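User: Modeling request: complex.
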Amino acid sequence: MAPTNTSHRQTHNLLLISKLLSLRDTASPLALVLDSLEQPATPLIKEYIRRAKLSKVHITFVAFETLQPLEGVDAFVAARKKSPLEIVRAVNAAHTNVSTSGPVRRRLILIDAINPLLHARRTDAHFNISSFLSSFLMPQSPTASKVEASLVVTFHQDVPSPPPPSPYTPSPLSMLTYLATTIVRLHSFSHILAQKAARDRSLVPPVFGLEEEQDGVLLGRLDKPVGNDSAQGVVLELEHRRKSGRGVLEWYILPPASHYPRQYAKEIVTLLDDHPLYRPPQEPSFGAGEEEPESTFELRLTDRQRRDREGVVLPYFDAQQGDGPGEGGRILYDMGEEDDFDEEEDEI
Amino acid sequence: MPTQPPLPPLLAPYVTALPTSSLTVLSTVLGAQGNWLTLRYLYAALNASTASDATFSLSGDNNNNDGKKQKVVLVSFLRGWEFWRSEAKRLGLDLARLTDKRQFAFIDGLSELFSSPRTTPTTETAHPPLPSQPALRGGPIPQRTVLPTRSAPGPIPARGPQPTTPRPVAAVPPPSAPPAPREVGGPVTRLHWSSKGAAALDSLEKDIAAVVAQLKAAATAEDASEVLLLLDQPDLLLAATGPSKDVGATEMSEWVMGLQQYVDATVMTLAADLPLIHNASAAGHQMATPLETEHAAFAIGSAHRAHMVMQLRDLDTGAARDVSGVLRVSKGGAWGQSDNVDTNGGREEREVLYFVQRDGGVSVFGRGE
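Assistant: Request completed. Predicted assembly structure:
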């Protein structure tokens, strides 16, 4: 790829992720975060909260599986044993309480895991995930001031879904991926590196955790596989659907939270391709590939030497003539006195 | 192999000083059962002060439980009181005495879970008027054919050796739970499956919460009121009830979450055998049964909610004489949600081997040590 093209892509996609994570311009009303046991969504959720705090966005946390409120969350809605309608009411109430006191224009609604709701038996047959999610985004009453809401929904990919009630119903995951304007798949950086290392050697990429299908293994993640200390971070595989319908695909890396201060306002996410561990900086001599290796000997030929070399007639050309001293390639041998000639076996 | 203290040094950071309101999932397979590890949790909580000089000095200074005992509520769904009492005795814990001192409470989730309350075990076959019992909506068949064979050995020896308990009002049922009035007098509280679905789980939660509250109320000034909850294989509950009784993975998770709110830390044992986890995944080629789907969703969902996941499995290279299995300690999905780093000190992810000796002693060691 030409260097201008790369830098263009870099600028554009970094702007895009910055816009998405900081919830600017309601770039994406519904972001779907697909995590797994190998890479939980916690670091990304914390990064969302951190940025929302910096830009003074009201944060509502809908907890299906979290007991303790995360730090920095403005409103914590425990969704345990609540029906979808009750959850919507509680979430909306959490914001109306605040909006009377201060001019909060934007809000972020985080759902820590949507799987329990999709599994729950208390959700009746009329439960519709799309209307449930859109009821968060729509203004509740026409008189209410317009609030720009962004919704971030986490879905655990590795939790199996219950069989659909009818064979024609789409699975919850395909429904969610259809609705979402942004889909972020999370990968562990050390796993990505291990898989890349295997692919570079044309080996089968390794799998981790549940995908190993080993008895008794739920998690395969180990912090420091072999002293690989710097391979921390979360790899984000981002798919963003623009309003025009065009999709953008890019891989990013989010460094661990300990690597930068909480109030750091600059962009910390980088492209995966720019990470030194994923794509090591190339050797400077590699660019000039045509040159032969240098040594203290002069290995090249001058023109005169090359001409002379081409003029040499090699012995096997001579032998093919049939009239030279070789006589068509026959072996000439002069018997010495130590040779014992046997008429039956030897012939000349 | 040198003998190790009751709490092996490698294990000590993981079983002591569990973070507040955390969930630890202990996954086992058929060949590598987790009873010994559950007992180590029990030991670490109940015996903290006496062991602090010997064991805890090796494991670093990071546990704030030094000299502070925790109370333990053990809810066992697969094993009875007698089993835990004799196993704990090998570690030097006298559970009956600790029960009297209100340090420990045992809740039996199996013996009378599906048998109707207030029946003597010998008269189960003479139970014709089933429709008159609203508590048994599960159907008469499990009650008559399966359960008597299981429940009969449970309660009788369990109640036998405890005649001298000076606690006649142990485990008083809350007045709001009329369908499950429990037997009182013994050290063992028994759970009863009352009605259907969420309501039955709620009443189980209430029963357990009542026991926890009793322990907390009995706390004096010098010993702490922190309570550790050990849930031994609650997946039995899911398997025995299942979707037909309106109990699924979500209901079970919410039940566990509800219990977590009453106690300071929770340890839950779950089966993670291959068919229970992987048959329901997308890669499985056959139709998964509801049990497989729900169990996998419950187990994996619990691992997502867990602070740490302790995974026991067989040795990859086959059985060995001096190794019982592999223990892999991993950070669960909830790791890092709370920001305080000091509670996480000393808990790294690691994989160690363990060996359960014939006398119940356990040694934990790294590969090649």
